[in-house]
Amino acid sequence: MRVLHTSDWQIGKTFRFADDDTLRVLQDERLEAIGRVARAARTHGACAVLVAGDIYDVEIPSDRTLRQPMERMRQFPQVQWHLIPGNHDPHTPEGPWARLRDIGVPDNVTLHLENQRSPLVPGSEEGWVLPAVLRHRHMMGDPTTAMDDMPTPEGALRLGLAHGSVTGFGSDDTANLIAPDRARRAGLGYLALGDWHGYRAIDARTTYSGTPEPDGFDRGGDGGGHAVLVSFDGPQALPVREMIPVGRFRWHRARATLTTGSEVEALEAHLRGLDPEDLSRVLLWLEADGALGLDDFALWDERIVRGLGSAFRLLRIGSAPTVTSAPADIERLSGAVRGAAERLRERASGDEHAAAALARLFALAGGRA
């Protein structure tokens, strides 16, 4: 038997640093990831998909946002989907799950709104889903405790589905805190967890899948973009886990110290190598320091700020090198252009916008050697 484990879709997520066009693309891609998860399940022969919470990013999504993931799952009727609430979308009286229950969901989607077992596949007793339902954003105590006493037929595969922290990822280390040995205590073949946005194996039977579409610069090497294919040879056998790529975008951080034009060119070559096939999939947060002369700063502005800023999905520059200029540089200009350059030079040492304007003015006026 095989299942696919995913979590933390966070449909409707807002990326405050992104412009409107980029925000729209990032939000749409979180929906597109559902289709990639479904096709992965179908390709690898998974009988069901376990979604371990945070399907939505907020407790009160708009009606369209509420319905969108349901319609995406409806398009794959051969895939069984099992969903639980998370800390972003807990099951409250006015929350998304109550609204979905009233609206109705596709036949191939199971909403787990009580701590009660449910067959993994309708009509089969071979596998059972044991959910932990969050009714508040922060619940005191272990939400998975009830799994210990959920009965299942003898010899059946027991699959836990929960959302919370095993190692205290959040600032509130007492909320939604799951016992690290819950799989052993409850006799689970596998415990599918959500909350952490990167892949993390807690033990041989307990795993965080991570978000299917990466969503942050600070996630490190396990920053999401995968679902977990889990294969079972029997209810007591250890599961075999395989990370299946389903994400589109690549999030990176980079740092550089720049003092020469050749270093700017080397940085450009390195950054273009982040995704040689499609730079539009890259979101980059760049921190640069150092000092560049006018010619080299103009090269930075042309190759990095404007060039890669147009190639990448998003280029976020946290810091930039300073610009240095000598009186001889300004003397290469004349007339009103020279006067403007002199005024910008006076401000450039403490104003990155003035520095960029000076470099552009210098390049446009033909001042570059």
Automatic annotation (TrEMBL):
UniProt domain Calcineurin-like phosphoesterase: residue ranges: 1-99
Keyword Oxidoreductase tagged: no
GO molecular function, one term: exonuclease activity
Domain of life, source organism: Bacteria
TM helices/strands, residue ranges: none
Entry keywords, A to Z: Exonuclease, Hydrolase, Nuclease
Residues making up the signal peptide according to the UniProt record: none
Protein's name in the database: DNA repair exonuclease
Source organism of this protein record: Ameyamaea chiangmaiensis
